[in-house]
Structure formats: C-alpha cells, structure tokens
C-alpha cells in the first residue's frame, strides 16, 4: 500500500471513476477540501468519519487509511492511554531490533487474518 494518504485516495477515486465533486458530495464535504486532502495540503487531518467514508466509497481499508491520515482510531486511543508510559520503550526496542519489530507486525497481521 502506498504510504501517502493524498496519493492513495486520489488514485482510488480515479480508479472508482469518481470526480472530486461526486465523492465530496457523498462525503458531505466541500470538493475544495477533498482536493486539499488529495494534495496533502489540508491544514488538519480529516475527521475519522470522513476517513471512514472515504474508505467505504473507495473500497480501502479503514484502519490503514486512518493511520495514514495521521489519526489514531478511537478504539486504539484507550489502549495507548493505558500504556502510554510503555510506548517509548516499545518503539525504541522496535527501532533497535528490526527482527523484533517484524515479529510484532507479523503476529498482528496473523491475528487480523
């Protein structure tokens, strides 16, 4: 998956044959805001419901799109708040030990399957 939110939604919109105005109308947002999102020029990340709408209409994975947009899904916020003191150590260990990071991601992906 492309790791650029704007490029991803622009390409998916074009693949699904939506104009910016058509998709914006479905999402109940202004097409100029959609254009800013596609060009990574929005002043702020879209609300989670807009991202979920984009995912629905563009047939994209909601959770991946939320993370690419720079948001954390609401259900994950509680987990992060509970373990906020442990997060820096976890990230540091993942950076220092790529094999550990790969194992964590692989196990997480296996559970999602």
Automatic annotation (TrEMBL):
Lineage: Bacteria, Bacillati, Cyanobacteriota, Cyanophyceae, Pleurocapsales
Gene3D superfamilies for this protein: lambda repressor-like DNA-binding domains (1.10.260.40)
Chain ranges of the HTH cro/C1-type domain: 9-65
GO function term, MF aspect, one: DNA binding
Stored SUPFAM superfamilies: lambda repressor-like DNA-binding domains
Xref: InterPro entries: Cro/C1-type_HTH, Lambda_DNA-bd_dom_sf
Protein name: Helix-turn-helix transcriptional regulator
Highest taxon above the source species: Bacteria
Pfam family name, one: HTH_19
């Amino acid at each position: 998956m492309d790791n650029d939110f704007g490029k991803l939604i622009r390409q998916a919109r074009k693949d699904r044959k939506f104009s910016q105005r058509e998709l914006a109308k479905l999402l109940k947002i202004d097409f100029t805001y959609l254009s800013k999102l596609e060009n990574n020029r929005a002043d702020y990340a879209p609300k989670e419901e807009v991202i979920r709408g984009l995912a629905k209409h563009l047939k994209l994975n909601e959770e991946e799109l939320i993370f690419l947009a720079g948001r954390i899904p609401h259900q994950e916020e509680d987990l992060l708040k509970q373990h906020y003191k442990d997060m820096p150590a976890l990230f540091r260990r993942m950076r220092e030990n790529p094999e550990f990071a790969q194992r964590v991601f692989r196990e997480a992906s296996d559970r999602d399957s």
